[in-house]
Specification:
By secondary structure, this protein is mainly β. The protein has a single domain, classed as Rieske [2Fe-2S] iron-sulphur domain (Rieske Iron-sulfur Protein). Helices cover 0% and strands 44% of the residues. The strands form two sheets. It has a six-stranded antiparallel beta sheet with strand order 1-9-8-4-3-2, with no helix packed on it. Strands 5-6-7 form a three-stranded antiparallel beta sheet, with no helix packed on it. Strand 5 and strand 6 form a beta hairpin.
């Protein structure tokens, strides 16, 4: 399922935006002309990663400092040890879309 998250020019460069759609909480990051989308909940303490600070293509959790790669969702520092989901991003014309898979009822 493809969900619009706005126009590329409207996404803040170098910061995250939290998007909720179809049962997913997604952190969307724009770095120049590149856009990344990962699960918004830190796997250590469930803090919003959209509120975290960016370092190259990693985001640092604002609560306990765990960092996650924007390209693979893998934690790159403790205390988190589990990855966050990564979503495919499509930029078409001036629109930005995130590909979401429907959440199961029991999730």
């Amino acid at each position: 399922m493809r969900v619009s998250v706005g126009k590329l020019v409207d996404l803040p460069d170098g910061r995250g935006v939290r998007v909720e759609a179809e049962g997913h909480r997604v952190a969307v990051f724009r770095i120049g002309d590149s856009v990344y989308a990962i699960g918004d909940r830190c796997t250590h303490a469930e803090a919003s990663l959209a509120e975290g600070e960016l370092f190259d293509t990693e985001v640092e959790c604002p609560r306990h400092g765990s960092a996650f790669g924007l390209t693979d969702g893998e934690p790159t520092s403790f205390p988190a040890t589990k990855p966050v989901p990564v979503y495919e991003v499509v930029v078409e014309d001036d629109g930005v879309y995130v590909e979401l898979e429907p959440k199961e009822e029991d999730e």
